[in-house]
Amino acid sequence: MNEFQNHNNFMDMIRAIRACKTAAEERAVVRKECASIRAAISENDQDYRHRNLAKLMFIHMLGYPTHFGQMECLKLIASPGFPEKRIGYLGLMLLLDERQEVLMLVTNSIKQDLNHTNQYIVGLALCALGNICSAEMARDLAPEVERLLQFRDPNVRKKAALCTIRIIKKVPDLAENFINPAAALLKEKHHGVLLTGVQLCTDMCKVSTEALEYFRQKCIDGLVKVLKDLANSPYAPEYDVSGIADPFLHIRLLRLLRMLGQGDAEASDTMNDILAQVATKTESNKNAGNAILYECVATIMSIEENGGLRVLAVNILGRFLSSRDNNIRYVALNMLMKAISLDSQAVQRHRATILECVKDSDASIRKRALELVYLLVNESNVKSLTKELVDYLEISDPEFKGDLTAKICSIVEKFSPEKIWYIDQMLKVLSEAGNNVKDEVWHALIVVITNASNLHGYTVRLLYKYVQAAGEQETLIRVAVWCIGEYGEMLVANAGVLDIEDPMTITEADAVDVVETAIKRHSLDLTTRAMCLIALLKLSSRFPSCSKRINDIILHHKGSFVLELQQRAIEFNSIIEKHEKIRSALVERMPVLDEATFSGRRAGSIPAAVSTSHGAAPKVPNGVVKPASAPLVDLLDLSSDDTPAPSSSGGDFLQDLLGVDLSPASSQGTNQAQKSGTDVLLDLLSIGTPPAQSSSSTLDMLSPSQGNKKSVDMLNDLASPSAPSAQAFSPAKNSPMMDLLDGFGPSPPAPETNGSTYPSVVAFESTSLKITFSFSKDPGNPQTTSIEAQFANKSPNIYSNFVFQSAVPKFLQLHLDPASSNTLPASGTGSITQKLRVSNSQHGKKSLVMRIRISYKVNEKDVLEEGQINNFPRGL
Amino acid sequence: MIRGVIIMNDQGQPRLVKFYEYQPVEKQHELIRSIYRILCSRAENVSNFVKVDSLFGSDVRLVYKTFATLYFVFIFDNSENELAMLDLMQVFVEILDKCFSNVCELDVVFNFNKVHTILDEIILGGQVLETSTSEVVKAVEEISKMESKANWQGR
């Protein structure tokens, strides 16, 4: 191989690099070599120039910078010898960094070489030009290349053809100059020239409609004939690839025909026969033959409609699917994906084979097949396809379960013919792959369950059965625990038994067992365990016999290190022990969740989820949003504050789940709960809500009524002796509870009158609503701003269920007090006020910004308004 | 079009790197490493095609094959037929085999600029130039002759 200049020196460098054991050693060797090459360059060493450049190319391949060698390429190209030129051009193609000045310098050398008497030098120049040609070079050198398209030697012609592709891609305007010479190439006998000529014509069609029209008019018959001759040609060993005559030329011809046939019925018609012939006659036992068939199918799919051919094409793909070669199955699935939009009937016929591919051992094939199956599902086949997929879920690879589960859930949600089927399938999925099920899926399932009143008993019994068998699937447990909490008595009483059910005997203790097992499981996350506590509270009322036991379980969590669980445990314990009378009303069954509202919410919650995942965007702090009208919301809001997962979309939903105000079809149960339970719940859960008249002894500490103010003052004074008296606050707006908490801070806010040095702003105004913010600041705590929001109704209609929510970026902390009312009288005859406190951790650097959302009901219609507030006074 | 051809060994060391669209050298290095990672994580009995949208943009795939200690990788977009790329790779390997009589990794390492010359006779500017092994071998032999003639004259 000496002729390729493997001088010892070059070999030595490679050996030295190969001998390196560490990256550091390699770098040292390369640095040394580069230094000596640089030295040679600066000495303008001619003898070793091409050897040095060869070294540089190797170094470049290893990923080291070699820009200093670029000018050496130019010198070598300009030198007369062939070996120098060859290395020079090779270096030009590899080391070039697209700097225009280098290209400008080389243009002239290339031009000379294109006109060289030595055809091999012409070949080198064409090759380099085809790889690196810029728009300027294209304009300068196009005439030379055009001339070379008719060069006597075929090797030069074919290189010139491919070089032309680069030229017309860089400067599409030049394409029309090449139409005639390109068309002439289609009449070539030399396979290599024909191959490149066909490719050139294909690329010309892409950049020039003129060329496309020309070839359509003048060349289509010729091309069909070439393809026919090729398909019928006798064995030609030099172009044979595993027994098929020149598959590449076949493919290129089919591709050009596709280009010409697309959108032209007449042209498509011309090629139908030959396409049918290729599709039926090509042998399919070798890769090369399949490559031709595959291309032929693509062409049939793209040209103008011919039903018979399309069926033939889809059948070829069907045959591909049963091939043992992974590659063939892979491409077939890709193509079927395109075919499905053209002729889904034909694809449906291969459903069974496609379904088999979902179970393929090759992950990329499984994935594709699954996507295809997903496209194939319709109302008529949903049941059988889902059954196959759910059955496969049992035995599928763990890493495939995620994809598979998502698709099954999506199919079931989209095509479910009836509720019982939906519930059946979902529960199967939950029990097989519950850990892969996304939050919104099981949320949706609960919505469906609450709406299927005749299936409550059936569902809860089925869940009970599944949870015994698959207790490690978290979402299954969540749904089961929720349903047992809601419909526990139906589980035990065998209420609403369907014909298809086997009789079961479940005792109250059994039902509590399920929840107890779940809550004791340490692998389960906070949300699940919090849900368990709620379920237990509900069961304590439904199963009086187990009340004592449940209370014990709850008591067990009084010492939980997780604040959320501890709080719930303490609260629930006091409900069970001290508020027997209201308990049953408190734990009434959930109202039916409105499906329309939920799906709307679900769509709306997507951006929220996105913003949370990015972290930077303002996140809706669920724990802070406290619509005063829905004390129950607090209960779950707090939980979602602690658990990251449901806080994005789940949080919203959980709010719905218990947020009575948001479900229009609120039943009496909750209303009752709201009325009778208000006092306790408010005290328990909503910090800062005006205390009600009655307060029990246990709660005194947490919710002192106005009469208990002394204790608050005392605490306040203890925490910060200099603090102004809590008396200064208006009791109606700032509850004593608030004072209590503030008292623990370093310095409680001063009376608002002192700090109010900022002008009020109109924070938001729409045609229907106006929000005014007035500000006050505690001089001792410049980071915190108290805002009083005043809402005014500009319309002639009363707004009910008025809820104001807001979100702030991470550098801010927001606390919302309950609003003064949730009804906004019409035409500005009254207003709602609500207090907000914002702490700015970047005080002095960044100003406040807030995103707001206001929802209310007007004339029985839900209205949602959103906005962003940027006009806060500076320095807040 | 074909976006690139890479030969690397089973340690991830590049043995031949040719991109038909300009890539800065750091980027090249990064791409090679990413591709190596992809190839290493492929199971044995899977298809030879990998979608590499994340590295090269939409609809770009690569096809790979192992020959002894070497990975051959072709990167191409949707204007190429996947199965034909597989065949082209076969053609490339057959030609290397003929030029080096039973090609091995060391042949590619020590003759890497000859391998470039061979590749330039098969693919030009990302388009297939010639698929006949005999035509390519003939062209490479002619170039060899030119080289040795010049070398003789030079000495």
From TrEMBL, chain A:
Domain GAE: 756-873
Keywords: Cytoplasmic vesicle, Golgi apparatus, Membrane, Protein transport, Transport
Main location: membrane
Pfam families: Adaptin_N, Alpha_adaptinC2
Biased composition (Low complexity): 637-649, 694-705, 719-732
Chain intervals for the UniProt region annotation (Disordered): 637-656, 687-734
GO terms (BP aspect): intracellular protein transport
GO cellular component: clathrin-coated vesicle membrane; Golgi apparatus
Membrane topology: Peripheral membrane protein
UniProt family annotation: Belongs to the adaptor complexes large subunit family.
PANTHER family documented for this protein: ADAPTIN, ALPHA/GAMMA/EPSILON
Function in brief: Subunit of clathrin-associated adaptor protein complex 1 that plays a role in protein sorting at the trans-Golgi network and early endosomes (TGN/EE). The AP complexes mediate both the recruitment of clathrin to membranes and the recognition of sorting signals within the cytosolic tails of transmembrane cargo molecules.
Protein name: AP-1 complex subunit gamma
From TrEMBL, chain B:
Protein's GO biological process: intracellular protein transport
Keywords for this protein: Membrane, Protein transport, Transport
GO cellular component assignments: endomembrane system
InterPro entries assigned to the protein according to its UniProt record, in alphabetical order: AP_complex_ssu, AP_mu_sigma_su, Clathrin_sm-chain_CS, Longin-like_dom_sf
Nucleus in keyword set: no
Annotated localization: Endomembrane system
A Pfam family recorded for this sequence: Clat_adaptor_s
Ranges where the AP complex mu/sigma subunit domain occurs: 1-146
Superkingdom: Eukaryota
Gene3D superfamilies in alphabetical order: 3.30.450.60
Family per similarity comment: Belongs to the adaptor complexes small subunit family.
Name under which the protein is recorded: AP complex subunit sigma
Upper classification of the organism: Eukaryota, Viridiplantae, Streptophyta, Embryophyta, Tracheophyta
